[in-house]
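for the writeup, i need someone to sanity check this before i put it in the appendix. the sequnce is what the collaborator sent (i think, or maybe the updated version? ugh). structure was predicted straight from it, no edits. if anything looks off just tell me and ill rerun, i have time this weekend
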Amino acid sequence: MPCKKKCTLAPRLALITVLAWYCHPLLAEQIVMLNGDIITGTVKTIWDEKLTIEPAYADDFKVDLDAVSFIESERVFDIEFTDGREVKARMLGGNAGMQRIEIDGEVREIPLMQFAKLDEPADYYDWDTFIDLNSTVEKGNTDSEKVALKVKTNLKLGDHRHIGELTLARESQSGVTTKQQELATYAYNWSFNDPWFLAGNLGYESDPIKQLEYRITVGGGFGYDIWDDSGRFFQIQAVAGWQTEKIERQDNDSAIAGWILRFRYNLIGGDLSAFHNNSWSSTLSGRRNDIFKSQTGVRYEITDLLYLNFELDFDYESSPAEGSENEDLTMLIGIGVEL
């Protein structure tokens, strides 16, 4: 009988130990406010003096950093201080706005307001997609309509990043179609020595109204990530490759060289996001042409899913088709979905 009780008790103790081990990180992840409130959940970011936390019972939300007493978590975070120092540290609690952190086994106490940025450990897999529907209509002496559908997606798999963009733009003036653009780009980045990366690029564009039946580009190069975190992104890439096109019913093949730049910066705790992307290419052989494209704008988050979008697009070609303008400036206002 005694042996039977011991044999029955042992697996129960083992089960309790395993459950406690699994539940411990969840219980430890919490923020304590200066007013004494305790919020349990997953700490996501600190950015722009806002702390984002995601409870198990609701979507993530933001609290003012100066209202937080301390953070407790078993995970290691990427932290940047206001003086520019960057560390990886665990959050061990604290008191009255003073945060205890552990860096390589050493415990320090630092004011939370000196945390310029905090990010979760980078996931192996991460993705986001933005779908914009923009439209402007002008009525008066001259009637004009502009409609653009834009899809932008980013997929990260470890050191590999895939960036895709699709634009379908239509414009008309007094019932006459003046733009019928289709533009698709794909970029592959391999971060072989962070922040340096190697890249491959594909592009396709057509606009029959401007006598451009197609333009296909294939290229590659290397780039540098100046910023790459939840609150900001800034990269620049040098690219060289080959371009084939049919414009004004003429086939042209050219070697090309240029750059690609992508920029995003979150404001107001991430509710407002400013962005600017541009690319420039110049032909080194064949038909001489310099091409510059840029997209500049802001997105304002309405809900976790929807946002308002304001965008200014500028296209330039040094040698467009006969009868087409060198410059094309488009202002777009619309609504978008973030997935």
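The longest helix spans residues 2-28. The chain has a mean pLDDT of 88.
thx in advance!!
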